[in-house]
Amino acid sequence: MPATWCPRRTCRRATRGDLVLIDDDLTRLRGRVERLKSRHAHREYPWSRTRRLITNVLVRATENDEVAVRASFVVYRIRGEMAPFVGHYEYRLVPADDSFRIRYRRAVLDLEALREHGSISIIL
After folding, report:
1. I need a surface site. Which of 28, 67, 108, 113 has the fewest CB within 10 A?
2. What is the mean pLDDT of the chain?
C-alpha cells in the first residue's frame, strides 16, 4: 500500500492504477523529502513555510488489529502568498507499543482544481 495516496476530487472512488494527484510509497516519500531538503528543489528554495491543522478526528471502525480513523485537515503553504489545501485524511492505524502506527493514509482534497497550487511540492 502507498504511504500517501491522494485521488483527484472528481474521482473519489479511484483505485490503484487510476490517475491521482499523489501516489507515494515509502521510497518515493523518502526521495521527495531528501530532494526538498537539498538545493536541487529550485521551486522550494528558500523553503515554503507550512502549517498543518488536523481536526475532527473520528474513529470510524475497528477490525482485527486495525483502527479506521478520519480527520479533517488544512495545510497552509506560505510563499509570497498563502495557498490552503483543505480536505480530509483517511487512516488505518495499528497498535505499536503504547501508541499507534499509520499503516495507510489517504488524503482527499476538497479542491476542484489546483490553480495556484499547480505543483504539490509539500507533503500532505
Report:
1. 113
2. 78
